[in-house]
Design a protein that fits this description.
By secondary structure, the protein is of the alpha+beta class. The chain has two helices and eight strands; from the N terminus they run αββββββββα. Helix 1 packs antiparallel against helix 2.
Length: 252
C-alpha cells in the first residue's frame, strides 16, 4: 500500500511546490512599493528561538536593513533555516540569523511573506521519503514476523493434526479394549455357568452311579437268591421221586 501511495504523494508535493513558486512571484510584484512610516519592533532572541524557513521560492535577499532599498548582504536559496530576532510589521520584514547554508551565522533582514514555519516541499518530500522508507522497513519487518508467525501456526496446526490422529487411534484402541474386556467378562460368566452346569451334571452322574451300584448289588442278591432257590427247588424236585420210589419199594 505504501508503494502505491509514494508516486501520489510526490505528485502532490510537486504541485504544491509549483503553486508556492507562483504565489511567491506574485507577492514579489505586489511588494515592489513598500509602505512608508516603518515602525520597528524588537524581540530579543532567547533560548527558545522562533524558527522559520525560506518558502518554496528560488532565492530571497538578505538585506542590511528592513526596507527593500537597503543593501543586499547575501542571496538565500529555498530551504535555509533561520531564527527570527526582530519584526518590522510596517515593512513586513524580519531581522534573522541564518542557521544553515553557506551563509550560516549572518544576520540581516528578509521579507516575512517569504518565510514559513514549515520546511520547503523538497525537504518535506525528503522527510516523507525517509518516513516511507522507515515504514517500508517496518512493513518488511512485520511481514517477516508475520511469516514467522505463519510458520509457527503451520507447525502448531501440524502438531494439532498429529495429536488428533493419535487421539483417534487411542480412542479406537480403548474401544477395542472395552470390547475385549466385555468379551472377557462374558466369557468368564459363560465359563462360570458351564462350571456350574458341569458340577450339577457331576452330581447327577454320581447319584446315577450310586443308584446303579445299588441296583447292581440288589440284582446280585436277587440273582444269588434265585440261584439258591433254583438249586433248592431242583434238588427238592430231583430228590422227591427217589424217596417215593424207596417208599414204594418198602411196601409189601
Amino acid at each position: 500500500m505504501l508503494k502505491n501511495e509514494k508516486p501520489c504523494r510526490r505528485r502532490g508535493l510537486r504541485h504544491a511546490f509549483s503553486w508556492s513558486v507562483t504565489l511567491a512571484l506574485i507577492s514579489c510584484l505586489l511588494a515592489a512599493a513598500p509602505p512608508a512610516g516603518a515602525q520597528e519592533e524588537t524581540a530579543a532572541a532567547g533560548g527558545g528561538a522562533d524558527i522559520r524557513y525560506v518558502k518554496d521560492v528560488i532565492y530571497i535577499n538578505l538585506r542590511a536593513g528592513p526596507t527593500q532599498q537597503d543593501r543586499t548582504l547575501a542571496v538565500i536559496p529555498s530551504g535555509v533555516r533561520m531564527a527570527v530576532l526582530e519584526r518590522n510589521k510596517s515593512e513586513g520584514t524580519y531581522r534573522v540569523r541564518l542557521l544553515s547554508g553557506k551563509h550560516a551565522g549572518k544576520e540581516g533582514w528578509v521579507l516575512a511573506r517569504f518565510l514559513s514555519r514549515e520546511p520547503i516541499a523538497r525537504e518535506q518530500l525528503d522527510a516523507a521519503q525517509e518516513k516511507i522508507t522507515a515504514l517500508q522497513g517496518k512493513t518488511a519487518s512485520l511481514e517477516q514476523e508475520l511469516e514467522q508467525l505463519r510458520q509457527i501456526k503451520q507447525a502448531q496446526d501440524e502438531e494439532l493434526s498429529g495429536l488428533r490422529r493419535e487421539n483417534q487411534a487411542l480412542q479406537r484402541e480403548l474401544k477395542e479394549i472395552k470390547e475385549i474386556s466385555a468379551s472377557a467378562v462374558e466369557a468368564h460368566r459363560q465359563r462360570q455357568l458351564m462350571e456350574q452346569r458341569l458340577a450339577e451334571q457331576s452330581e447327577r452322574l454320581k447319584a446315577a452311579e450310586d443308584a446303579s451300584a445299588a441296583a447292581k448289588e440288589k440284582l446280585y442278591i436277587v440273582v444269588v437268591s434265585a440261584a439258591v432257590l433254583a438249586l433248592a427247588v431242583g434238588f427238592y424236585i430231583g430228590y422227591t421221586p427217589v424217596r417215593r420210589e424207596k417208599r414204594w419199594r418198602k411196601l409189601p
